[in-house]
Write a structure and sequence with these properties.
This protein has 4 helices and 2 strands, in the order ββαααα. The chain has 85 residues and is mainly alpha-helical.
């Protein structure tokens, strides 16, 4: 994963498909577990940013909303080296 600062204070975050799937799943699981509501109560902008990341990733996540999603999620988790950075 890498981030690059562009013009006009824009930042581009580049990640693998596996990283995108895992990030999307973490946000979705937190939202489902109502963990994001705690953030919303303190800082609504954090809820908004996380929701927008999830929304932007939705069309890019293989198998999302289909029977193949669990297999895609397993593939994504196994594709990432879990050793600490």
């Amino acid at each position: 994963m890498e981030a690059v600062r562009g013009s006009d204070r824009h930042i581009t975050l580049r990640m693998s498909e596996a990283e995108a799937v895992v990030l999307h799943e973490v946000i979705a699981f937190s939202d489902f577990a109502h963990d994001l509501e705690v953030i919303e109560l303190d800082r609504p902008v954090e809820q908004k940013v996380l929701s927008e990341v999830q929304r932007a990733l939705n069309p890019l996540i293989p198998g999302l909303g289909q029977d193949t999603y669990v297999a895609e999620l397993d593939r994504a988790y196994s594709a990432i080296d879990p050793t600490p950075y």
